[in-house]
Amino acid sequence: MSKRDKGASLATYMEEGYAPEALVNYLCLLGWSPETQSREMPISEVLEAFDLPQILRANAGLNLAKLNWLNGEYIREMENDRSTNCPFAP
Fold first, then answer.
1. Model confidence over 13-42: pLDDT tens digits?
2. Closest by alpha carbon to 16, among 90, 86, 79?
3. What residues act catalytically?
4. Cβ neighbours for 14, distance < 8 A, ≥ 6 positions apart
5. Which residues contact 84 (CB under 8 A, 6 or more apart)?
């Protein structure tokens, strides 16, 4: 995510219908890989599992396919009234 990219602003992603929880989850996992295989992690689990030595040394890159998958996981779990306003809702 570069400041020159259209998607450099979190507000842009939210305007495009991404769930805030999915964005937070994705950003937490960017450049860090928890020991568990879980990818959908509430912030409370992230705080418990975070381990500084597990941060990758390479620059993190935006993986839009992974973000879209994670967003879909959160949207499927949303209450009906909230997900009907989201353009990515099934």
1. 888 889 988 988 888 888 777 766 667 777
2. 86
3. 3
4. 20, 23
5. none
Distance of CA 23 to the CA centre of its chain: 3
Positive or negative torsion for Cα 56, 60, 65, 68:
positive
CA–CA dist 39, 77 (Å, integer): 15
Average pLDDT over residues 59-70: 83
Residue with tokens 């009906």: 80
Percent of the chain predicted with pLDDT > 70: 70
19 token code pair: 């769930």
Name the residue among 54, 44, 55 with its Cα closest to residue 21. Answer: 44
- In angstroms, rounded to a whole number, what is the distance separating the alpha carbons of residues 87 and 17? 6
pTM for the full predicted model: 0.66
